[in-house]
Amino acid sequence: MDECTAHFDDLDLETADLILKLQLQDVEELRANSKDKNRDGELNDAQVALSLFEENIESMRSILFDRQMTQSITAAVRADAEAIADVIREEEVACEDHAHAHRLNGSCVTSEVHLQSGDLSKKIPARLAGRYVSQDVGYELLKDIEPDKWREPDDHGQAESSIRGSAREHALRDPSNLVRDLPRGQEVL
Fold first, then answer.
1. CA atoms within 13 A on the CB side of 33
2. What is the tens place of the pLDDT at every residue in 160-178?
3. Which residues lie in Basic and acidic residues bias regions (predicted)?
């Protein structure tokens, strides 16, 4: 279905939705103007084609709205990343204090919580964004995280050639490269 929605990648959601609504109206007009006579509720080929086309349009609308929601969630997480990291650090400190208090008290810690390290990898959200939101967003996030990695001078201290830069950019935009190094279990959220 991605190949069907690829036509809408360069359009804003409102424009894409308007196009799909107009196509749905066209389907309804064709259905209303159809003078086909059917026996006992049987559908002819034209009616089946219209029904399939209508289902396809509804699926594309659903995908576009899902994409918008995913982009909105990504934007919210990016905007709140610092606050989220602060809360995680506070939780880590509270867990450590709790475990330390149990040890000082001589009681057994029955359920110690082990959170991820305080420095959450920024590569993971970048790669997930590249995979599930937009390759351009993932590319920009990766480029911001590791700018030196993507602008390596050659052996003589010269900047890379345009051919090498183009090949590097193409490799970055490949979704398989964006998610290659995700930790096990974090490939899909």
1. 6
2. 556 666 655 555 555 555 4
3. 148-158
Question: What residues contact residue 64 under an 8 Å CB cut-off, 6+ apart?
Answer: 5, 8, 13, 16, 17, 20
Residue 88 CA to chain centroid, in angstroms? 23
DSSP letters spanning 96-123: HHHHHHHHHHT---SS---PPPSS--SH
Long-range Cβ pairs for the range 6-14 (8 Å, 24+): 8/60, 8/64, 13/64, 13/65, 13/68
pTM > 0.90: no
Q: Are 88 and 120 in contact (CB under 8 A)?
A: yes
The answer to whether 91 and 115 have CB atoms below 8 angstroms apart is yes
- Copy the structure tokens of residue 49: 């084609």
Contact 130, 175 (CB under 8 A): yes
From residue 34, how far is each of 31, 54, 99 by CA, in Å? 5, 15, 74
The number of helix segments (H) and strand segments (E) in the chain equals 8, 0
For 12-70, write each residue's pLDDT tens digit: 888 989 999 999 999 999 988 877 666 667 778 888 899 999 999 999 999 888 888 88
Q: Which residue has the higher pLDDT, 87 or 54?
A: 54
